[in-house]
């Protein structure tokens, strides 16, 4: 237990900082993923066949390929692309992209694919009659979007987005392969130097459980709050 | 585009497909048995047992698979008594550690899918079975199970795809399946993007075939949802 204590002797403070890192990557990835998801949903529901096909390809590929592969692609690929650009300007040698950015973007793109489906479903769940009613009272596209669509789409999407957030949290563990010191990487380092792998990976598991449990609770609160104006059957 | 290189890469990566297939099929098969048991225990009237089952599902769904893999592969060796027991023959091999982690993981997710399928069996069907004099195992085998399987299949298909993707984590504990071979090739050739794209295409193809297979199975299991076949009566006019 001393191993997990705070300060110089234990790994408690390191693990705590690593937990904050996990949260930071997951939150950033989730938010960027929402942007991708909104764009993807808009494309899937758009009139243009090209946009629909592109969004279809995006969700199919990103959901059909292992997350680890996507993370590797960004980790290795990000620096290759940068190096190609740099060599055009006469710079040679290795350029690395930092693990935080690569990890956040890779997970954001994977999560965006899941968010796309969640948001698309939520948009389709808005009753047609409400849109007709809004048009009938003369709302413009922008007003309809703001007053009718957004409040309901957010409410309908909330449970699904909760799942996407849980996925983001758990996917951050994979970023440890790129060397970012989040929970997983920190526990690997700690178990390497103390020769107590079970202790530290169990600690990591507990930290993840705390994060997922708090998230479940938080999203449940948010759902109750968002449904406060809805009559229950 | 360097087609010969891509072709060679594809051939080397495909050599990892059998191992991936083993990992997926073995852990799905074992996981399905585990999932069914856990689902039945969770629905059982004994609070302690169902609490334990819930705890298992909660822990395995709430932590990343990588933590589970590491706990089993690196973690278990911390204990002297495990290293001295017969279990160590299996647990020191990355292959069995990967299978164990994947089985426990899919067992947790699968049990929720099966529980959902079992709970969604319409009560009327069970009642009808009882009315015909079925009970216990016969009722379960003839009425509850077939309906539950059919209802759980779409969600279980998703779980199968997740498992195919999850096998890539076995590469982190030195297994040379598709991702593992891709990593080795990258360190040999430094042509990461091309190799990873080929690897991604292989996974995509496997998952595509898998979704098709699940769809076909669903179709086969749902004759009641299909259109009735057109009557084949060569001299139908004579009947009337």
Q: Helices, strands, pairings?
A:
The complex is a heterodimer of chains A (233) and B (240).
Chain A: H1 12-44, H2 49-64, H3 67-88, H4 99-124, H5 128-136, H6 141-171, H7 183-194, H8 197-226
Chain B: H1 3-14, H2 17-42, H3 47-62, H4 65-75, H5 80-84, H6 88-91, H7 94-119, H8 123-131, H9 136-166, H10 178-189, H11 192-221, H12 236-239
Helix pairs in contact in B: 1-10, 1-11, 2-3, 2-7, 3-7, 4-7, 7-9, 9-11, 10-11
Features:
heterodimer, A: 233 residues, mainly alpha, MetI-like fold, 77% helix, B: 240 residues, 12 helices
Mean pLDDT of chain B: 91
Number of strand elements of chain B: 0
| Helicity range of chain B | over 70%
Low-confidence stretches of chain A: none
Classify the fold: give the CATH topology of chain B.
MetI-like fold
Mean pLDDT of chain A: 90
Number of domains of chain B: 1
The biggest beta sheet of chain A reads: none
What report would you give on this structure?
The complex is a heterodimer of chains A (233) and B (240). Chain A contains 8 helices and no strands. Chain A has helices at 12-44, 49-64, 67-88, 99-124, 128-136, 141-171, 183-194, 197-226. The model of chain A has no long low-confidence stretch (mean pLDDT 90). Chain B has helices at 3-14, 17-42, 47-62, 65-75, 80-84, 88-91, 94-119, 123-131, 136-166, 178-189, 192-221, 236-239. In chain B, α7 crosses α9. At the A-B interface, α2, α3, α7 and α8 of A face α3, α4, α9, α10 and α11 of B.
